[in-house]
């Protein structure tokens, strides 16, 4: 099986945000092994990503997404049997200014007029953010405060280490609430700013209320239609009874008398 001879640079490393980080791995085997660098994310699910298929891994622009443990995996095949060797884990910490994860909350939140809107973004920072606020127009709302129909929640711990969720709630949104809302986060190493767009859709079922005159017209039309149906039903029933009554006046003896009269006429 393959044998890993060396991995580096060290078992624990710290990389500044937006810097470059390099990992190296040396293994031997016959046949020569193939390499993979795996990253285990610091989440409850323990998600594993393949970061490289070479003996070295070069991260040219370190972000908080690269925080976690890295393992070098060497593999070769003898006959039809796959043989695997893995290195000890290398832990990489990322430090720097806050970074709002652009893919965390989406670029736009669409809400029907009159409903509540919840805007969410995830920010990562080490050290922890000391301030967080939502800004729109000329207003600024610090995390943990509320104003009128707006409430900015305190930062809550995300499932990822050194990451936090920021939430802004807008109650009973109106068309005037449609705009960009900016999350601004700062720590002693710097700050970051990112926007979420709130789009408000008109609720056409509620936007055009039915007038009282229209309701009365509909009610009057319904009553008139009902009266017509009742009259038609009564007329049909009376006509049917009349037909039955006429049939009831006819007797079989009448037919016999008529037949006798016709025979008498013929004989004479």
TrEMBL record:
<keyword id="KW-1133">Transmembrane helix</keyword>
<keyword id="KW-0472">Membrane</keyword>
<dbReference type="InterPro" id="IPR003598">
    <property type="entry name" value="Ig_sub2"/>
</dbReference>
<dbReference type="InterPro" id="IPR003599">
    <property type="entry name" value="Ig_sub"/>
</dbReference>
<keyword id="KW-0812">Transmembrane</keyword>
<dbReference type="InterPro" id="IPR036179">
    <property type="entry name" value="Ig-like_dom_sf"/>
</dbReference>
<dbReference type="GO" id="GO:0098609">
    <property type="term" value="P:cell-cell adhesion"/>
</dbReference>
<dbReference type="InterPro" id="IPR013783">
    <property type="entry name" value="Ig-like_fold"/>
</dbReference>
<dbReference type="GO" id="GO:0050839">
    <property type="term" value="F:cell adhesion molecule binding"/>
</dbReference>
<dbReference type="GO" id="GO:0005911">
    <property type="term" value="C:cell-cell junction"/>
</dbReference>
<dbReference type="GO" id="GO:0005886">
    <property type="term" value="C:plasma membrane"/>
</dbReference>
<dbReference type="InterPro" id="IPR051275">
    <property type="entry name" value="Cell_adhesion_signaling"/>
</dbReference>
<keyword id="KW-1015">Disulfide bond</keyword>
<feature type="domain" description="Ig-like">
    <location>
        <begin position="2"/>
        <end position="91"/>
    </location>
</feature>
<feature type="transmembrane region" description="Helical">
    <location>
        <begin position="215"/>
        <end position="237"/>
    </location>
</feature>
<dbReference type="InterPro" id="IPR007110">
    <property type="entry name" value="Ig-like_dom"/>
</dbReference>
<dbReference type="Pfam" id="PF13927">
    <property type="entry name" value="Ig_3"/>
</dbReference>
<keyword id="KW-0393">Immunoglobulin domain</keyword>
<dbReference type="InterPro" id="IPR013098">
    <property type="entry name" value="Ig_I-set"/>
</dbReference>
<protein>
    <recommendedName>
        <fullName>Ig-like domain-containing protein</fullName>
    </recommendedName>
</protein>
<keyword id="KW-0325">Glycoprotein</keyword>
<dbReference type="Pfam" id="PF07679">
    <property type="entry name" value="I-set"/>
</dbReference>
